[in-house]
Design goal:
three-stranded parallel beta sheet, Arc Repressor Mutant, subunit A, about 525 residues, three-stranded antiparallel beta sheet, mainly alpha, 25 helices
Length: about 525
């Protein structure tokens, strides 16, 4: 066994822990289907949101980890439940009245409010695939409509028909009295209206493969359960998919723990083993509310990629999947800088540490080098101090600080400079609040400016930081963090900021002196 596989088999990184759980399924024999199947699910009743991306990214990390500890081939399916009935019009899409007319139709039959695809589900499916393709994920897209109508589920649907009572016995105790009285695991697609009907099953004919139900107008109709004439209710449908395809691994949000439990029971009733599952914590918006594709709250994938590179989003998704996370714009700078910190650490780590490093699970063995000689947080402060409106302004300072860097040689830094200006304009600038200094702060800032005017040492961030410390101590700041808070609030209009020595080295001695002079003159607070 290679050192790499041996280390992976013992790694405590969560993707390896999950991969070992999957491998345990095949301790005695490999899968009859010839591969291990990873699946992610997606409901296209609204625009795809960042949680869907996170599920695919995390599942891909587990799949890669599995491929390191096993030679069994793998496959990843991204399954769209696009035959589900359209029950609610999302609030974040156009043509609301038109969509309201299409309620209860299968999602692939609902008209596209954007007018670009054959249906609403097709539009959302294409949008999701575009993002997944942009990240380079290897997956196979699967449509419930295709699988039902082309017969991919027919054999298992006939098993479900035969074992209908078993499925009902699992589901009915989980339902309220009213729904229990009319519940059937089969949802007929009305040949009259095309609607997905939630009606009781009145009769079953296992030998013919049919059910009988009553249309809203009172007519009794007999239809086959195969060929796309019915779909299954949500939890039985999930179990049907697992059983029919032989799904080995699927993760889902904490809000679906009960669904996983019931679907697993149904999968067993269909004669198949349910997949290994991971329940992850949900993402919350800025108000602590669960993000929702129908509400359109929280961040979208487009939002994140407007302000940071894709890898930073994957890094964010890697972190502690079982811990709830606030997902809003203010998490982006931290994710960017932490991602690059991990990139810089990777080359000097031993194999064990590398396999625990998030960047390994983002990039595999081909981990790139970081070219961020200036942090994203520092770029934001630079944009603030310089009132930058374009990245060229930032490069004027970066070029002096790091003469060997250029947009051509440091593409990630160049992109980050552009993102920083955009982020500053939209989120930092509107919140900037400058204040005038106290007498103690005024004296200390004037002293710092005087020392920088005659500075003849190196423009070294640590040396400059020590000088800033010395000024704070000389003027009696206790604790010293009050001195740095004053610097940020008076000079940068923010409650927090960078290591100020590094800021001086980047922004420049003369420029920092001028910034202090303007603050002491009241120009910054006056402008605010």
């Amino acid at each position: 066994m290679s050192d790499l596989r041996s280390e992976a088999l013992n790694s405590k990184a969560w993707p390896f822990e999950e991969a070992r759980r999957v491998l345990k399924r095949y301790e005695k024999a490999p899968p009859e289907k010839g591969y291990v199947l990873f699946q992610t699910g997606y409901g296209p009743s609204g625009l795809p949101h960042i949680g869907t991306f996170g599920e695919v990214a995390r599942t891909t990390m587990v799949r890669r980890a599995f491929e390191m500890i096993s030679d069994i081939p793998t496959k990843l399916i991204c399954f769209s439940d696009d035959m589900d009935g359209f029950r609610k019009v999302p609030g974040n899409v156009p043509n609301q009245d038109m969509l309201a007319e299409d309620l209860n139709l299968p999602l692939t039959k609902v008209r596209d409010p954007f007018g670009t695809h054959a249906g609403f589900a097709q539009h959302n499916n294409a949008r999701l695939c575009e993002f997944l393709d942009g990240f380079g994920f290897e997956y196979e897209f699967a449509s419930a409509t295709d699988y039902y109508t082309t017969g991919r589920f027919d054999d298992m649907l006939l098993v479900a028909l035969e074992r209908w009572e078993n499925i009902q016995e699992i589901m009915l105790p989980t339902l309220g009295p009213d729904r229990r009285a009319t519940y059937s695991c089969f949802l007929p697609i009305s040949p009259k209206t095309g609607h997905v009907l939630q009606v009781p099953t009145l009769e079953r004919n296992v030998s013919k493969g049919t059910i009988v139900y009553e249309e809203p107008d009172g007519e009794k109709v007999e239809i086959p359960v195969t060929g796309g004439h019915v779909k299954m209710q949500w939890k039985p449908d999930w179990a049907l998919r697992w059983a029919a395809l032989g799904v080995d691994y699927e993760m889902s949000g904490k809000d679906l723990i009960d669904s996983v439990t019931q679907s697993s029971k149904i999968c067993k009733a269909l004669g198949k083993a349910p997949p290994v599952s991971l329940s992850y914590e949900l993402f919350n918006d800025e108000n602590g509310q669960k993000i929702s594709k129908s509400k359109g709250n929280g961040l979208s994938m487009e939002d994140w990629l407007s302000y940071a590179a894709p890898e930073s989003l994957q890094y964010f998704m890697y972190q502690k999947p079982k811990t709830a996370k606030r997902l809003y714009f203010d998490v982006i700078p931290k994710a960017v800088d932490e991602y690059h910190q991990q990139l810089r650490a990777y080359p000097d780590q031993d194999l064990k540490a590398q396999l625990n490093n998030p960047v390994y699970h983002i990039h595999g063995a081909a981990v790139p080098a970081s070219d961020m000689v200036v942090s994203f947080a520092m770029l934001l402060n630079l944009a603030s101090a310089a009132s930058a409106h374009d990245k060229a302004t930032l490069w004027g300072f970066i070029g002096k600080y790091a003469p060997d860097a250029s947009p051509e040689t440091h593409p990630a830094l160049d992109a980050a400079a552009g993102f920083a200006v955009r982020y500053y304009e939209n989120f930092v600038k509107p919140e900037k609040t400058f204040r005038l200094p106290s007498d103690q702060e005024r004296a200390a800032l004037a002293d710092l400016a005087d020392r920088l005017r005659v500075w003849d040492g190196d423009l070294d961030a640590e040396t400059l930081q020590s000088e800033v410390f010395a000024v704070g101590k000389a003027h009696g700041f206790d604790p010293l963090r009050d001195w740095f808070s004053a610097i940020y609030e008076v000079l940068l209009g923010a409650s927090q900021g960078p290591r100020f020595g590094g800021f001086i080295a980047l922004y420049g001695l003369a420029e920092t002196v001028d910034l202090i002079d303007r603050a002491l003159a009241g120009d910054l607070a006056g402008a605010a």
